[in-house]
Design goal:
CATH architecture: Up-down Bundle
Number of helices: 7
Helix content: over 70%
Largest sheet: none
């Protein structure tokens, strides 16, 4: 997207529309990577996990390109009022999307490191499905300007926090209930602790995806209504 210091109003609005479309396209890719990382974890598909990891460079390149477009708009066109809120909100939403992609990459790495599902009672897929839906809803709210959807996403974050807390408590209880038998070797215990650490990191990262979805909803609400109430 090439910008000049002088841009007719019609061309300027078209540029803003193209930016929105490109951000939504990036979001689609990020969501696909997040879903793929969860699928890889559920099925222990190492090939799929590796694809998610190596695909992060593409997302980073898109992020940097769109971030520059936002910077150029701010510097060259000096938008005001609603247009200014749109560009600044979009600039920050891009960061949220890039970080969600990083978290999906983390999930891919955890899959490559894992050898078994030692805690089948912890429903990672349920948490993952919930945050995926939150992220999709947040971007739909950004695209449509649905302010009630923005507030609903913020309310749903409490549900995700509870799910993650319950999962963490379950892992800790199972660990405390595990008796170290005389036949257990030190490497066995080390493997157990690595599995515990990996699962807790997975739960933490999924909770952070939910937090980024809330960030996107908050920025979208500010963009449409000039309402900063959901912003941290």
């Amino acid at each position: 997207m090439l910008l000049s210091n002088v841009m007719p109003r019609e061309s300027y609005q078209q540029t803003l529309g193209e930016l929105r479309s490109e951000v939504l396209e990036m979001s689609d890719v990020v969501l696909e990577r997040l879903e793929a990382s969860l699928d890889a974890m559920e099925t222990m598909d190492r090939r799929l996990a590796h694809q998610v990891i190596i695909g992060d460079d593409e997302i980073n390149e898109t992020y940097l390109r769109l971030e520059k477009e936002c910077t150029d708009l701010l510097a060259l066109q000096q938008p005001v009022a609603g247009d200014l809120r749109f560009v600044t909100a979009t600039f920050k939403i891009l960061t949220d999307l890039e970080r969600i992609a990083d978290l999906a990459t983390n999930l891919g790495r955890y899959t490559l490191q894992a050898e078994r599902n030692r805690f089948p009672d912890v429903d990672i897929q349920m948490i993952g499905d919930t945050v995926v839906k939150m992220q999709a809803a947040a971007m739909e709210a950004y695209a449509s300007g649905n302010i009630e959807a923005c507030r609903e996403i913020a309310r749903r974050d409490g549900v995700v926090d509870e799910m993650c807390e319950e999962a963490t408590d379950s892992v800790v209880r199972d660990l405390l209930d595990t008796e170290r038998e005389d036949t257990n070797s030190e490497p066995d215990m080390e493997a157990l602790m690595q599995d515990v650490s990996r699962l807790l990191l997975t739960v933490r990262d999924l909770e952070r995806v939910g937090d980024h979805a809330v960030n996107i909803a908050a920025r979208s609400l500010y963009m449409v209504e000039n309402d900063p109430s959901l912003l941290e």
